[in-house]
Design goal:
196 residues, mainly alpha, 2 domains, 11 helices, 0% strand
Length: 196
């Protein structure tokens, strides 16, 4: 039984690697099952034993990744302080780094734009609840706008990090995100003062 499980894991890994490589070159709608199977070194029957089509493959990969992110974040969400999201952000950025192959293609030019929207939704409820506790005079609409602005900035920061090959540690990117969120333009001013 363990041999079967190992073969299944290896097959899925080969399919995922071939899929992410192809997604770096062309949009998902231009990838055929035949082409994917040739790139993965498997036959079509093997592909269909695991997935119904290309979109099912993408959905299952994303679902697996979101499960990993939620699992990693659960203990952090239970302990997190309202306006200190560095631990949560570090957890998210680390999971994304661990799945960098998928992130590069899903957030890249041929990626699934719905993926970014799913990332934004991941922390919406928790963050908005924290903001409303701390900023009691802010309306729910203002908090929603703030979250939309900040989360879109985090997606931009993630995109920049991906372009840099994710060389910086996840914790450093999370700290940069927090500094920008809390300081705004002051983030750049602080850097200017540090430069001799």
């Amino acid at each position: 039984m363990k041999n079967t499980d190992h073969r299944v894991r290896v097959t899925r890994m080969l399919i995922r690697q071939a899929f992410t490589k192809l997604l770096q070159q062309k949009p998902i709608q231009s990838i055929s099952i035949k082409e994917l199977c040739a790139a993965a070194g498997i036959n079509r029957g093997t592909f269909y034993a695991h997935y119904t089509d290309i979109y099912d493959l993408l959905a299952k990969i994303e679902q697996e990744m979101f499960g990993e992110i939620q699992e990693a974040l659960q203990p952090l969400l239970e302990e997190a302080r309202p306006l200190n999201p560095v631990d949560i952000s570090t957890g998210i950025f680390q999971c994304l780094k661990d799945n960098s192959d998928l992130c590069i293609v899903t957030l890249g030019p041929y990626g699934d734009k719905a993926f970014a929207a799913k990332l934004l939704e991941l922390g919406r409820e928790r963050c908005q609840a924290s903001y409303s506790q701390y900023f009691r005079r802010a309306t729910p609409e203002q908090i929603s706008y703030y979250y939309a602005f900040v989360s879109a900035g985090c997606i931009g920061l993630l995109d920049r990090w991906l372009q840099d090959g994710m060389r910086a540690p996840a914790g450093e990117i999370a700290r940069i995100a927090q500094e920008i969120m809390l300081s705004g333009i002051g983030f750049l001013q602080d850097r200017q003062e540090e430069t001799p």
